[in-house]
Amino acid sequence: MGCRWGLLFIMFVSVSVLSGCWSQKELTDLALVSAMGIDKNEKGKYVTTFQIVNPGNVAAGKQGSNQASPVTVFTITGNNVVETSREATKQIPRRLYYAHTNLVVISEKLAKEEGILKIFDAMDRDPEFRTTTTVIIARNTTAAEVVNKLTAIEKVPANKVIKTLDSSEKRWGEFFNVMIQDVIRDLVSAGREPMISGFYIKGNSKDGKKMNNLQQTTPDGQLVVNGMAVFKKGKLISWLQGEPARGASFILNKVQSSDININWEGEKEAIAYELIRQNTKVSARLKKDGVPAVTIHTRAEGDIGELMVPIDITDPMALLKIEKVVEKEIEKEIKMAVERAQKDQSDILGFGEKVHLANPKAWKRMKQDWNEIHFPKTEVTVKVDAFVRRTGIRNKSYLSNMEK
Predict the structure, then answer these.
(1) Which residues contact 224 (CB under 8 A, 6 or more apart)?
(2) What is the pLDDT of residue 281?
(3) Which residues does the UniProt record annotate as the domain Spore germination GerAC-like C-terminal (predicted)?
């Protein structure tokens, strides 16, 4: 009996010291920030653009010309990112809430002139802000213009950008999603420089801000992913796009699938090789003369997606020949990426990290001037093994019958 009363006493005491929902936040008191754009004006002050979700408009699912905007955008000026957030209280009646912020947009001008070294400290320090937030560069425009765009299909524009990046990474391989934690890691690493995907505005940027624009089959002011921004010491120095960009993705083992078009017997882009998986391993060593040497080994597997010329792909020798041509194409793209990076003197490929792992003692001597002296002189060997796994539901193309 005494034990029972003692247990009840402990329970009552425990209940009395419980804090309850002390940290609860009512939705009606919060402004949910879905995206932030960061620019700098002529006076040298930061211009932060906040894309805030209107929960009622997103959930309502209204259709037609009277449809309300799913987001509201505010632009605030201050001496730093934290000040702009505090200054926002002059215009926004609710407290800015960053736990749902999925996107940070940085203008190309700011990234080139000042760099991005100072931008992420406030975000990394804030307990609400997630370092898994996606970062992009606003190419040939301001970050404010990108954040102001309304998008079709996806109601919240920030979600459209992120899903476009994810889709492109999975299906094309030329671009990939970069998060705040990735940028910070590359900035502080002595053997790697950051790369960040860029977006530009296709069409009339002013019309892209209006809800009426979304009533068209082809809306103006569409956000399109375009190029990978190359950084050195925190500043944007060049852009990679096309084959060199995909070559860099191969080296970084970021390509999940893609389409590789190859020439065949005088016909350009005659065969579409659908890459379904790849794996790249990069190793480094120091030669006897002290010059770093890097080996890149890529293994690719794919299917025949399209034939523009009559080929008997039931012939094993024909498939073997296709594999050799694909190997040369991937090797070419990888070498193009290496040449561009060495020309820019920016180790976006992480070769310095591999040298560090291979020879920590030698790396101590090299890391101070790695980008300028040692990285451009690094000897790179590329080996590619490509395989055709399937040819689709047809072995022989109908083009073969037409030729006969």
Answers:
(1) 199, 200, 201, 202
(2) 98
(3) 226-392
